[in-house]
Write a sequence for this structure.
């Protein structure tokens, strides 16, 4: 294990990582936001779910370094007197959960369908790929809005708040699996004609065993790039849906919900309620895109 760790430290992977300063910055910023979001319950100065932790007398306070600010509220407060820093940490937690789960489901669906399509071919391949093409022709936001609208129309109002997160996760996952499927399908078609697959067939290996024990491990390398890029897009999609009012409810604030609420009071002078969540959202998505682009370059020797 010590030898493996030494080999990793001396590998080209870390060399190219430390060589790219912007990638290093994006990585550490992403790690900082992930830690802040995951441990928001411990890091947040106040609990946003505890009514006794905020006071209407403290509403609309600007950041602490501005005139009228309060040192207890570093980034100011919203119209209800809630600490904005605490709201952002809890909102980041929800946005990350939605993004990670939806990307994981998209990856699972796309990889499974991609392997089946590439290996089996024929009618199975045609049906899956034509369905993927049809899905790609529909804008992501429009399809997500459609799913959210249908789900909200079916569910009773009492359950809409509780089911808001599963609905958003499902809508994002169902609009993101196609890229994984198309990529894995292309690689599976190349792999299934190689000698190790033919040898497994001759020795009596079953199709499922060949697909998932032999082919799948050899076609997963591009998935890390796609997943990293998709994660930033998924978080932006959730924020967009919440901003449009069909995402997370106000009692479960995400970054998009905070931007939506702050936008209503923007012209009254509460610019900080919009600005700080928007900066976190933009920089987080940008960091994921930078990391995804770097992974794509490092995994392709021709692009180094």
């Amino acid at each position: 294990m010590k030898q493996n760790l030494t080999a990793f430290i001396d590998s080209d992977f870390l060399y190219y990582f430390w060589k790219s300063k912007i990638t290093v910055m994006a990585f550490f910023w992403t790690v900082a936001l992930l830690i802040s979001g995951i441990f928001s319950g411990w890091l947040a100065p106040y609990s946003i779910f505890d009514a006794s932790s905020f006071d209407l007398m403290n509403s609309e306070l600007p950041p602490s370094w501005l005139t009228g600010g309060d040192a207890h509220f570093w980034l100011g407060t919203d119209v209800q007197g809630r600490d904005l820093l605490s709201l952002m940490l809890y909102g980041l937690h929800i946005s990350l959960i939605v993004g990670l789960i939806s990307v994981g489901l998209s990856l699972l669906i796309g990889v499974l369908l991609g392997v089946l399509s590439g290996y089996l071919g024929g009618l199975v391949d045609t049906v899956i790929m034509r369905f993927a093409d049809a899905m790609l022709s529909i804008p992501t936001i429009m399809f997500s809005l459609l799913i959210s609208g249908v789900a909200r129309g079916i569910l009773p109002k009492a359950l809409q708040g509780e089911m808001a997160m599963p609905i958003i996760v499902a809508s994002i996952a169902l609009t993101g699996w196609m890229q994984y499927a198309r990529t894995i399908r292309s690689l599976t078609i190349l792999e299934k004609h190689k000698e190790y697959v033919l040898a497994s067939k001759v020795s009596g290996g079953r199709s499922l065993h060949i697909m998932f024990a032999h082919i799948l491990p050899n076609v997963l390398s591009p998935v890390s790039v796609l997943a990293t890029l998709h994660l930033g897009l998924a978080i932006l999609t959730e924020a967009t849906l919440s901003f449009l009012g069909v995402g997370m409810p106000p009692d479960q604030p995400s970054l998009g919900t905070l931007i939506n609420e702050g936008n209503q009071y923007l012209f009254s002078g509460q610019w900080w309620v919009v600005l700080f969540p928007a900066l976190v959202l933009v920089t987080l998505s940008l960091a994921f895109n930078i990391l995804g682009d770097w992974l794509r370059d490092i995994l392709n020797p021709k692009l180094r």
Notes: Confidence is low (pLDDT under 50) at residues 1-10. The chain has one domain: 25-40+82-303.
